[in-house]
Amino acid sequence: MPELSANWSAILPHLILCATASVVLLISAGRQGRAGGWALYLSAAGALAALIAAWMTPTGPAAFAGSVAVDGMARILNVLLAFSAFMTLLLTSGYAGRWEVESGEFYALILFATAGMMALAGGLDLVTIFVGLEVASVSQYILAAFRWREPRSIEASVKYLLLGAFASGFLLYGIALVFGATGSTNLHEIALSVSRGGITGSPLLLAGLGFLLVGLGFKISAVPFHMWTPDVYQGAPTVVTGFMAAGPKIAVMAALLRILGVGFESARPEWTVILWWLAVLTMVVGNVLALVQRDVKRLLAYSAIAHAGYLLVALVAGQELGGISILYYMAVYALTTLGSFGVVALVKNEDDGGTDLDAFAGLGFQRPWLGAAMAIFMFSLAGIPPTAGFVGKFYIFSGAIQSGHVVLAVIGVMASLVSVYYYLRVVVAMYMRPQAAGEPALAVTSPALGLALAISVAGILFLGVYPAPLYRIAQAAISTLPG
Amino acid sequence: MPVLSIIVFLPLVGALLLWGIPMPPKAQRGVAFAFAIVTFLVSLQLWFGLDRTLHTFQFEEQRAWIPDFGISYHLGVDGISVLLILLTTLLSAIAILASFPAIKEKTRGYYAFMLVLETGMLGVFVSLDLFVFYVFWEAMLIPMYFLIGVWGGERRIYAAVKFFLYTMLGSLLMLVAIIFLAVAHRNETGTLTFDLMELYRTHLTTTQEVLLFSAYALAFAIKVPLFPFHTWLPDAHVEAPTAGSVILAGVLLKMGTYGYVRFCLPLFPHATAMAVPWIVTLSLIGIVYGALVAMVQPDLKKLVAYSSVSHLGFVMLGIFALNHQGMQGGLLQMLNHGLSTGALFLLVGMIYERRHTRLITNFGGLTKVMPLYAACFMIVTLSSIGLPGTNGFVGEFLVLLGAFGANKVWGVVGATGVILAAVYMLWMFQRVMFGKVTHEENEKLRDLSKLEFATLVPIIALIFWIGIYPKPFLDTMDASVRHVLDQAGAPVPAAAPMHTLGPGSPGDVLAEGGTE
Q1: Could you give the ipTM of this predicted complex?
Q2: Which residues on chain A place their C-beta less than 8 Å from a C-beta of chain B?
Q3: Is residue B347 one of the residues assigned to a domain?
Q4: Is position B372 within any domain?
Q5: Kindly report the CA angle at B239 between A374 and B288, in degrees rounded to 5?
Q6: pTM over 0.95
Q7: pLDDT per position as a tens digit, B105-135
């Protein structure tokens, strides 16, 4: 047993986020919940500070009795999560005023959720992972309902809450079973126990792993646990949707990587079979269902499902490259998803088909910069060079082929061929359809939002043309991962 | 000086300038044309600087790009790619010039995409690293997609998306094959690399070769397009704006055939040998089928589009005859098709600008109204059917010679394609140009403007140059052709008897018999 010791600097980013959130909450409480621009900028500054703190944190042995990782992977994930929060807050500027979600709670919840995700992503103990997941989830349930005058937003929140609670139940039950079989919730201790006894001989452990996969599969919306995703993504305020598509996916994938790659490494052959099918189903179903969507938010929801599938491919591939490609892809995916939802957030009328593809007709020439940004996001999601999305897919499928999963790679590229069609539909609407008559469907870009989009576009192009540095960083991060 | 990088990225610089700096439409097209013509002039350096006695890659550049993956920015050209680069830079400049009168809306994006497209195409021809190659190969889809989809005709969206998806289908499988090949190489040698020069040395089992060959071949077959993968082509050609069709037919299709020569043959010689009967059969079907379908097209542009299917069948026949004459003929025919079909699309575009119709029945007797136009059209038509004295003759003759050398039946079936080409082209020419002016609207048509004439002059000059004195072109590619054949395990003759082919050689009789 590692000795009980508190290493506060290991969770400095979490602390910064929680402290900022508390301050924002307190001040806005004194103003009857109404918050001006200052709350937004204070929160964004908090996220930025957490990002810097996460980057500066030196790696070391696991903190808090071996339950919080302080390794390179935790560092890169904390940076990514803080970055997602920062971008989300920038994208909220302008949006918040239009939708009357301009309150301190809104920003505070984003920060709390991010702190939860960091705990989840860095958790080396199933209990830490669960607590982190719940902090993140509960914050998101509320965020989804923030346009509370809209029935659809409430529907999204309730749906997310009920199904999410159900999934948490599965997860908790899985944790209990694994604890029962191995006598520990610590991943390293579980690993020892699993490698000693194997997994096939222990029904308890097998069932526990199954429940864990169901619970986490729900959170990354892997098929067949994806049913909630389109409705929740569509109903939630668009900036929240972007945040939900990026942040939790990163954190939960990291948790999966740790649970499977550390705790259950010696049972790799067993869970590879399960994940192989999950990956195939997720890629195929996500992409095929996206084909028929006319609503851009729903389209991006199904696309988010499909991208979880690509990440699962990397998890199946395993080895060093599998881990690297997961980190690389998540960084690219966060940039692209946040950017694309940022553009969608400019739609003035979010309900009654306001986010229909038609709202984007003629956008490309009417708003050249915005259109070009959205087109780059779509090409990146589709994985077309010279965008970062292509390099990410290249790494993932290289990993799959290197570990001998050629069939999986072929299914993956064919699924992404399908995805090209629906991403092109957005581009077609923007550039090839005449502009709809009447008022422009998109609001004016605020400077902060413009900055966020510029960061996304620059990041996507840079990582697409010059992928070596991030690859190196990811490689260093993965090499600290035991097992 | 990194000549190749300059040639490849000069157009991109132009595109960024156009996109970033607001300027009036006239300045935009001026800038675009200036960048295209300067790129062409710089690329001439390759023609003069190439050492034609070597088969190795020249003007090489290599810099680490993603070192952990063994990916380097590796460029280089040999005799084969130099010709295609010159074709690309020339046709791009011509296509941009030809767009001046035609493109009136959204000019900024149009010219920017034309230049980006040029960068993409040039990148494909100079890449010696499979990853770099793939990046250019795919990136090029984006500008072409926009050119068809935004500035195209009636059914442009359908055509643009179809073009994009068809090409993606092939290239994604090729991507898997590229990675697989690199991994196989790593398993053999211990180092992961995407460098073509290294991968040439990989030893594969026959099964692996066949699978990988199939994946590459499918991607290239769609691009060529080989029958039955051609269905995207008529749509894309017909809906694209004139300049788009010129580039599409002139250069993009050549990427497929170039892919076979550069990648399929040298990388997978055993699988190539096994695939010859299949690919030649498809090529022959394409030759005859394309010609027959072209014959019955009421629309001029569609006719030219289907004639491309037939002509590219010839190119493939020549390459897969796997002998010296066949390959030389196939490669020369790539240039010839780029020139003559490019010119045909220009000519069709010119008449479309005037009449806003391309139906053959709407024309007739144009020789009287537009004598210069008709004369140019005549020359290009004759080049397209391969009349001796024009470039088409030399290429088709060599292809048929190669085909006969490999298998008599191939030669016979291929030769019928030449006859059919004469039928559909001359019949079309007769209906459009001769007879009485049947439509009133046609009586007052303007003849060629100076600008339009200027776009045709270089092509016509080349048609005659290659037709009368092909030696410089054949010499340029000769060493590389021999090397590719050697890599593909085909017998390479010691001497080069076909070089000095010209009027009066015994071959003329044979080919004339086949043409007339």
Answers
A1: 0.91
A2: 365, 379, 384-386, 390, 394, 397-398, 401-402, 406, 409-410, 413-414, 416-417, 420-421, 424, 428, 431-433, 467-468, 471-472, 475
A3: yes
A4: yes
A5: 130
A6: no
A7: 888 889 999 999 999 999 999 999 999 999 9
